[in-house]
Structure formats: structure tokens, C-alpha cells
Design a protein that fits this description.
two-stranded antiparallel ribbon, 3 helices, 2 strands, 74% helix, elongated
């Protein structure tokens, strides 16, 4: 974890770093080993990445839905079905986290 320093050489931590440090302290107080804590933190990071990917996919789907207004009705239905399938797969992946 990189830490910036103030002009008087005090460590300056980001809000995210402080939250991580607080979580480490809580897990340590619960008796978890450093190896277990590391695994827990990496698992949480992977979940955050997966959620961001899913949010990006949902945004893409919403943008595609907006563009449907320019298509003929039959094409709209085909694209809607395709997007519904993708959304279902994405939500299934999210529920598996």
C-alpha cells in the first residue's frame, strides 16, 4: 500500500486505505491469520471487479435499448430477446458471487 507524506512527514492515507486497514484490524482481532486475511481481501477485490464489469454490461445494455427506437418492430423484438438473454446471464453470474 503506497502512502503519501505531508510536508511534516506525516503519513497521508486515502479513505480506501483507511477502510482496508480497519478491516484488517477487525479480522486480526477475530483471530484470523495473515494468510486468511490476505485471502479475504483478495476475494473482496475480485468481487468489486466483477461488480464493475457487470455494471458496465448493464450500461451497455441500456444504451442498446435506447437505440432500439430507430429500428423496425421485428428487429426491436429480436434485439430485446438477445439483450434479455445477456442480462439473465449477467445476473446469474452476479448471484454466484
Amino acid at each position: 500500500m503506497r502512502v503519501q507524506r505531508s510536508s511534516s512527514n506525516y503519513r497521508l492515507y486515502s479513505e480506501e486505505a483507511l477502510l482496508t486497514l480497519e478491516k484488517i484490524k477487525k479480522l486480526k482481532n477475530k483471530g484470523m491469520s495473515l494468510k486468511e486475511i490476505k485471502k479475504d481481501l483478495h476475494s473482496e477485490e475480485a468481487s468489486v471487479v466483477a461488480i464493475r464489469e457487470i455494471e458496465d454490461r448493464i450500461t451497455d445494455i441500456h444504451e442498446r435499448i435506447e437505440s432500439l427506437n430507430e429500428l423496425p418492430e421485428a428487429e426491436k423484438q429480436r434485439v430485446c430477446n438477445m439483450l434479455e438473454t445477456k442480462l439473465t446471464k449477467t445476473l446469474t453470474k452476479l448471484s454466484e458471487l
